[in-house]
Amino acid sequence: MEVLIAPDSFKGNMSALEVCDAIAEGVLRADAGAVVRKLPLADGGEGTARAITSAAGGRFVSARVSGPLGKPVDAVFGLIDNGRVAALDMASASGIELLRREELNPMKTTSYGTGQLITAALDSGAREIIIGIGGSATNDGGSGMLSALGFRLLDRQGKPLIQGGEALDNIASIDISGADPRLRQTRIRVACDVNNPLLGPAGASAVFGPQKGATPEQVVALDAGLTKLAAAWIQAGLAADVMQSGDGAAGGVGAALRICLDAHMESGALLVMKYAGFFDALAHADLVITGEGMSDAQTAGGKLCSVVARESRKANIPVALLSGALGANPAALLKAFDYAASIACGQTSLDAMIRDSRADLAFAAENLIRATRMFAVAEFSQTTVSSL
Fold it and tell me: CA 378 to CA 338: how far, in whole Å?
């Protein structure tokens, strides 16, 4: 049996590579003769740059940038194709995992460090940038990122805005004359599987603001600020509208990249899968195992694991989902996966589930392979008896 292991990370717990290692351990315990192929994946969030760079045999570069609340952080990006292409994660500079829960505040957090990370990639000589924008802690419409790249966002007195989502209430105009000229010669590809527009009930603030610490009152204020930012973009002749699919990604960074940097949105999952060699590996697989930290209705709606499942089923390869936890209506997952299960083994607290996750994941993988072998033996026995 050849098993292709192609998971996302278990956010805040195990990297995608660590997930691969745990699943492989369980598979080989059940079938020592199995051929295992490990492909750690991502869908535009944390781990995207690492997955692409590792798969392409590139190298990693560290850059000191401003974190989401201004504290310096060491972000890492990858260089591939002889340094011509840079792979970046917004999460490494402006990510939610860089903050403690009590620090989350999209009124204050800024994407400035993401702009600095793009500058570092340009300084390295890259002229194509792949940027994953998942996992952000910000809702500033990319205003911080643009400021770091030389755009001037000005208030009614012509003074530069302070950083953070709440500052957008004061925006009056945008001056693009100081933007880094290298951006015009740089192709920017955005790895993102979020389809939300910038504004309104399905927009950045309403849908993702609460996950980043926004109160209901702050959600209203943040949406109003993004509305003013959108008006400034339109007034400057940069955009005709701000309601395109993906504009609401990363608190509006999706819109800023499209409108101001002429970036192109791509499926983060498919982009990483192509670089990682998923489709070549799939051609030789008998079973695909994917996984993530939490599975719910969003999983079946287009997250990485469901993309893995969709492409596997197109190739008539069975696909199993091993998840840290299953949310409401887990039966719906069986529309996307041939097998779906939580790896939890009776723990009653999140801390205990995280503590035991690696062992539980290995056990779940072992159990899955034991079951497939059992059914294979039963099918063989039935066929043999029928032929007598």
Answer: 19
Placement of tokens 């603001």 in the chain: 209
Q: How far apart are CA 368 and CA 383, in angstroms?
A: 23
Final residue belonging to a domain, choices 236, 268, 300: 268
Whether residue 251 is found in the same domain as residue 337: no
Contact 65, 71 (CB under 8 A): no
Would you state the pLDDT for residue 384?
A: 44
In sign, the C-alpha dihedral spanning 40, 41, 47, 48 is positive
Say whether 294 sits in a helix, a strand or coil.
coil
DSSP H or E run through 320: strand 319-323
pLDDT in the model for residue 376: 64
| pLDDT given for residue 58 in this prediction | 96
Q: Which residues pair with 78 in a beta bridge?
A: 60, 87
Q: Return the CATH number at 165.
A: 3.90.1510.10
Residues 217 and 148 in one domain: yes
Same domain, 35 and 68: no
Q: Can you tell me whether residue 48 is helix, strand or coil? A: helix
Range of the domain at 121: 48-268
What pLDDT, on the 0 to 100 scale, is given for residue 386?
Answer: 47
C-alpha closest to that of 204 among 157, 284, 143, 276: 143
In whole angstroms, what separates CA 241 from the centre of its chain? 25
Helices H, strands E: what count in the chain?
14, 13
Q: What average pLDDT does this structure show over 294-323?
A: 89
CA angle 194, 231, 240 (to 5 degrees): 70
How many domains does the chain divide into?
Answer: 2
For 62, the enclosing helix (H) or strand (E) is strand 59-66
pLDDT tens for residues 250-290? 999 999 999 999 999 999 999 999 999 999 999 999 999 99
C-alpha torsion 356→286→335→362, nearest 10: 0
Question: So what's the pLDDT on residue 380?
Answer: 40
Q: Confirm if 263 and 190 have CB atoms less than 8 A apart.
A: yes
- Interstrand relation of 339-342 and 319-323 (parallel, antiparallel or unpaired): parallel
In the chain, the N- to C-terminal Cα span, in Å, equals: 27
